[in-house]
Structures are given as C-alpha cells and as structure tokens.
UniProtKB/TrEMBL annotation:
Residues 6-118 form the Acyl-CoA dehydrogenase/oxidase N-terminal domain. InterPro entries: Acyl-CoA_Oxase/DH_mid-dom_sf, AcylCo_DH-like_C, AcylCo_DH/oxidase_C, AcylCoA_DH/ox_N, AcylCoA_DH/ox_N_sf, AcylCoA_DH/oxidase_NM_dom_sf. It holds the Pfam family Acyl-CoA_dh_N. Residues 388-408 are annotated as: Disordered. Residues 259-387 form the Acyl-CoA dehydrogenase/oxidase C-terminal domain. This is Acyl-CoA dehydrogenase family protein. It comes from Streptomyces pulveraceus. Belongs to the acyl-CoA dehydrogenase family. Its cofactor is FAD. Keywords: FAD, Flavoprotein, Oxidoreductase.
Length: 408
C-alpha cells in the first residue's frame, strides 16, 4: 500500500490549516462553543465553500468532491489540531454516509447537496446511549435491541394507517450536535415481536411537532450533546421501504467513522504535544529555569512524539482500509491523546494559565470521545474477537459483568 499523501491531500491540509489559523486566535476563549449553535456558523460556511469540508467524501453527483475517507481524514486531523467546534463529525462522518447508503434517489438528491455546501447539518440520534454498539465498534447487535422494543423504552415507530408517514415516540439521551442540527437521523424500533426491526427516519426538528431538544452540559464544550424527545412526531422513513438492513448499514458505517475520529484525535494529540514542546522550550521565565534542561522531560516528549506518530500511521491506514483497522486505530489514537494531554497537565514550569487551560481541554476531549465512542479497551476487545483471536463472538457490552471481563 502506498501510504504517501497525494498533492491534493496536502493541499486540503494546507487550506484547512491556513483558514483555521486566520480565523481563530491562539488562546481562543471558547466563545463559539457558547453560541446557540455551539460553533462559529460563519467559519463553518467558509470551510464548506473552500475547501468544501462537509462534501469531501461525498460523490460529485451529490455536490461533493469524491475524495473519500482519506481526504476527509486529512481535514479531520486539522480540525482536531485546532480543537475546532463544528458539526463536521455529526454531519459528514456519521449522518451523511447513512443517507448516501440507504436513502432513495429523491432523498439523496434533496439532502446530500445541501450537506455538501454546508447549508444543512445533520445528527444521528441513537437511543440508549449506545452509539458505539450501534456502529458495531464495541459489540455486535444485529437485532438492533439498543433501539428499544415493545415496552422496553428507547425509540418506537409506528406507521400512519392509510398513509406513507410514520410517527415516532421516545428519547435519545446523547445526540452529538443534536441541539442545532437541521436534520435528525433517528434510529427507532418498529413492529411487534413477529416483525421486530430497527429502521432509520428523517425528522426535521424545526417543522416537526412534538420534537423537544435539550442541550446538555458536555464534558468537552467542542463536543456538544443534546437530549432528543419525540412525542408522536411525524417522520419520513429513510430508504424505499422497511426491509432495508439498517443495523448492517450502521455496522458498515462504524469502521470508517472510527478511522476519521482517530484522525481527529491524532490531530488533537499533535496540537497538545506542539504546545507542550513550546512550553518546555520557553521554560519558566519568571524563575529563569529552563524546563527543557531536564533530560527526563526531553525523554518523555520523545516517547509521546513516537506514540502520536504511531497513532497517526494507524489512523491513516484505517482511513485507507477502514474495515480492517477502524476500531483499533481509534483506540490507539484516544490513548495517545489521553496520555499526551495528561502529561501536558502535569508538566511543570509553564508560562501561565492559558496553556494549562488548553491541556485540560485536550484531556476532556479524550475522555468525552471514550465515553461516546469507546472506551479504548472495548474497542480493542471487540476488534480482537471479530478477528477470531479469542475464538468466540464479541460480548454484549450491556450484559452484566462485561466491563469487568473485557477490562482484564
């Protein structure tokens, strides 16, 4: 495999980095995270125009540029380096591939060009806080039990008699960018016991009666979460009919999403390491002591650099071959980010509270992503079981005692 970046990918990286550098000052106070959208809407529109972030992996016939996961991974690494709050992950990484895979021609034509030009953001709403399981990253659940069933809660769907529409009721507690998305892609359980299945539905929250969105207080402000309640809400089925294999499509979308999340985490780790290296080089000017003179600090920075580069190689291998390495790459990237951020928090002799604040934010990003998409030991355990290393199927993360067994 040729792992070298193409000139086009290098141009994407340069364009994103320059635009972010020009738009966000060092020591950004996080004001964009506190807006109603949770991100800088004008900056998002500029990123959508050039270099066309939300459409990088979409086909040209739907307004995208057809660069595939590898092209989008380059952009994700740069947004991670800047710790940019944006709807990129929710819209382009999670929702758009499912619309492209399952939507009818009319649905793809109506929605994907608007996503590609930045005019429409989307969010994937999975009930039960089970996004990692739904995406097949930490467990296999081909029946879609995480969506709820019968009286078990979750999200329920019923067809409208004599019409094509559906009505949804239930809740999803942790929806990434769900408070601001113009389109919700909702996983819901339909049918009774004989024909029980999980389907995906399109909900337009601005016009759909019975939609209640509550913005949560997130661990990482750049990863805003929302609670979604649907109270007999009208919805459109994604796809031509209710026989589509939604759980299979979600499981297929999981490894590419993991690869892109890994690239973003690698960017965040690299950014934290660069700031730490600058801090060591500057030393503690107030005391006149250069922190970088301690050999142990230099050695630790070298170790972290090697870990970040290893995680970066794994992330891009996964972007080129997501089915083989998506979950493993994400586990490695999250651990590299966590360790780098933890060391930045502990590093002595910094030039002031701004750097300390940035280090804590990087640590929060790693913790938030592990809660939403991991944790790392489950990502590894599931990947190993799928590869047949343990001679059995992956355990159900919801089963009693699973956390203890896989943590060993």
């Amino acid at each position: 495999m040729d792992a070298a970046f193409t000139a086009e990918q290098d141009e994407i990286r340069r364009a994103v980095r320059e635009l972010l550098a020009a738009s966000r000052a060092p020591g950004d106070d996080g004001s964009a995270e506190r807006t109603a959208d949770g991100y800088d809407a004008e900056l998002w529109r500029r990123l959508a125009r050039d270099p066309g972030l939300p459409g990088l992996a979409l086909p040209p016939e739907y307004g995208g540029t057809g660069r595939g996961p590898a092209g989008l991974a380059v952009a994700c690494e740069e947004t991670g380096r800047a710790r940019l709050p944006s709807p990129l992950i929710a819209t382009a990484v999670l929702a758009a591939p499912l619309i492209a895979a399952l939507g009818t021609d009319d649905q793809r034509t109506a929605l994907l060009p608007r996503i590609a030009d930045g005019g429409l953001t989307a969010a994937l709403a999975v009930p039960g806080g089970s996004l990692a399981t739904a995406l097949g990253l930490t467990g296999d659940d081909t029946g879609g039990a995480w969506a709820g069933g019968g009286r078990a809660g979750g999200m329920q769907a019923r067809p409208v008699p004599g019409a094509k529409g559906w009505r949804l009721y239930g809740e999803a507690a942790q929806v990434l960018d769900g408070h601001s998305a113009g389109l919700l892609l909702v996983a819901a359980h339909a049918g009774g016991f004989p024909r029980s299945r999980t389907l995906l539905f399109l909900v337009r929250p601005e016009t759909a009666a019975g939609t209640v969105r509550t913005r949560r207080t997130p661990l990482d402000g750049a990863r805003p979460l929302a609670g979604i309640e649907l109270r007999d809400t009208g919805a459109e089925l994604l796809g031509a009919d209710d026989t589509v294999d939604v759980t299979g499509a979600l499981a297929s979308a999981g490894p590419p999403a993991a690869a892109l999340l890994a690239a973003e985490a690698v960017g965040a780790a690299a950014g934290a390491l660069e700031r730490m290296a600058d801090q060591v080089g500057e030393g503690n000017r107030s005391s006149g002591r250069a922190t970088g003179s301690a050999e142990c600090v230099k050695h630790r920075l070298a170790e972290l650099y090697a870990r970040v580069q290893e995680a970066r190689s794994a992330a891009y291998y996964a972007a080129w071959n997501p089915a083989a390495a998506g979950g493993l790459a994400l586990a490695q990237a999250l651990e590299a980010l966590r360790d780098t951020a933890a060391e930045a928090v502990r590093l002595p002799g910094g030039p002031g509270p701004a750097r300390e604040h940035e280090a804590h934010l990087s640590f929060r990003r790693a913790a938030a992503d592990e809660l939403l998409f991991g944790p790392a030991h489950r990502l590894r355990d599931h990947a190993a079981r799928r590869a047949g290393l343990f001679g059995g199927p992956a355990p159900d993360p919801a089963a009693p005692g699973t956390a203890e067994r896989v943590a060993v």
